[in-house]
Design a protein that fits this description.
Elements: H1 3-22, H2 26-43, E1 51-53, H3 65-73, E2 77-82, E3 91-94, E4 101-103, E5 109-111, E6 121-125, E7 128-129, E8 135-136, H4 142-149, E9 155-159, E10 180-182, E11 187-191, E12 194-199, H5 216-219, E13 230-231
Length: 235
């Protein structure tokens, strides 16, 4: 494919997968979220230590706020990304209930102020991922720039749904692979140049027949104790 053809192919793939994800019923999203929470907590016990970066959920993404709350209860520090300017690396600021949020790019909340943190682990949202561990995001390149520029690269755990698994995203030189990928199916580890499926951690995943708790966004926008995001001028 030429450069323009590749760009058009990626755009079409991204548009299709985001639309399919956004159309998933809330009960399905909740079931996937329970399974991914379980895989993360059982498969990565080290998440309870150090600084864990996660993203506020957007258009049907995995909602990491539940697991972030439990990790904080066990001693972790959690942080959210902040877009400083186009085509620049992200910065991360600590977030926990009570920290003021502002509304940024795409209306996604971010900590309005606070010291910058260097994450030990980053839970990176995925639109698509391939057999090499490469990720397709929203097209801005923010996470690739951030991982490339980090003085100490955090462990990158891509988080997505199994339906987003494709043979290849046709990675380019600027694309960086994830160290791990977690879906509702289980855990993948990047070995050499390929992802290897490790399965679900011992104990299994919650049953699809279990009665899940309500989806947080439907319970209350302040369910996690956050202050309502304040509008801010785009930078």
């Amino acid at each position: 494919m030429t450069g323009d053809e590749l760009q058009a192919w990626r755009k079409a793939l991204r548009t299709r997968l985001i639309a399919e994800r956004a159309a998933l019923p809330a009960a399905t999203l909740e079931r996937f979220r329970h399974a991914i929470d379980t895989h993360l907590e059982r498969g990565f016990p080290q998440l309870a230590r150090g600084v864990v970066a996660f993203c506020w959920p957007y258009r049907g993404e995995y909602d990491a706020r539940f697991v972030a709350r439990r990790l904080r209860d066990r001693g972790a520090i959690t942080a959210l990304p902040v877009v400083v300017a186009p085509r620049t690396p992200l910065v991360f600021r600590e977030w926990h209930p009570g920290v003021e949020l502002a509304r940024g790019v795409l209306g996604i909340p971010y900590p309005a102020a606070g010291a910058e943190l260097a994450p030990d682990v980053a839970l990176v949202p995925i639109v698509a991922f391939d057999d090499g561990g490469f990720r397709l995001g929203y097209g801005g390149g923010f996470f690739d720039r951030t991982l490339a520029a980090a003085a100490k690269k955090p462990v990158a755990i891509g988080i997505g749904y199994e339906a987003a698994h494709v043979d290849t995203i046709h990675p380019q030189p600027h694309d960086l692979p994830m160290d791990w990928v977690v879906t509702e199916r289980g855990i993948y580890r990047r070995d050499g140049a390929r992802l290897e499926f490790l399965g679900a951690p011992p104990g299994g995943s919650p049953s699809a027949l279990a009665s899940p708790v309500c989806y947080a966004g439907e319970v209350d926008p302040g369910y996690f104790g956050e202050q309502a995001p304040q509008p801010r001028n785009k930078r």
